[in-house]
Specification:
With 118 residues, the protein is mainly α. The chain has one domain (5-113). The chain has helices spanning 5-13, 17-26, 33-41, 45-52, 57-64, 70-87, 99-113. The longest helix has 18 residues, at 70-87. It is elongated and about 65 Å long. It starts with a helix and ends in a 5-residue tail after the last helix.
């Protein structure tokens, strides 16, 4: 059984992960069992999430129509995964704070905690 550590971390960062997948499934969009197993084996459930988003419905419909050919679905899933990696679609966007910003943030926290007055 694959570890799925990357996928678990991704799901934790996206609170609508399960709802989005369930909504797409309820709309009748499914992947072949082999394709789902491929996503699990490669720890790329973020691709499934991307497909489940409403703005990506055209690609989801296209993949759904390939359900008779899991090999073609897997090729498309790999292409989408490469595109997501290349575009940095779900890359960590935590800003890097400068020293001044870090000092100001610490000051705000100290004021809130009552350790410092304004």
């Amino acid at each position: 059984m694959p570890d799925l550590a990357k996928s678990r971390e991704f799901a934790a960062k996206h609170p609508d992960f399960n709802e989005s997948l369930l909504r797409a499934h309820a709309e009748g969009h499914t992947l072949a069992v082999e394709s789902v197993e491929h996503l699990k084996r490669t720890d790329r459930l973020d691709v499934g999430y991307w497909l489940s988003r409403p703005e990506n419905r055209a690609m989801r419909d296209r993949l759904h129509n390939l359900a008779e050919s899991p090999e073609e679905q897997i090729v498309e899933l790999n292409r989408i995964a490469a595109q997501l990696d290349r575009d940095g679609t779900y890359a960590d966007t935590t800003p890097v704070l400068s020293e001044v910003d870090q000092a100001l943030q610490k000051r705000k926290e100290a004021i809130r905690a009552g350790r410092r007055r304004r």
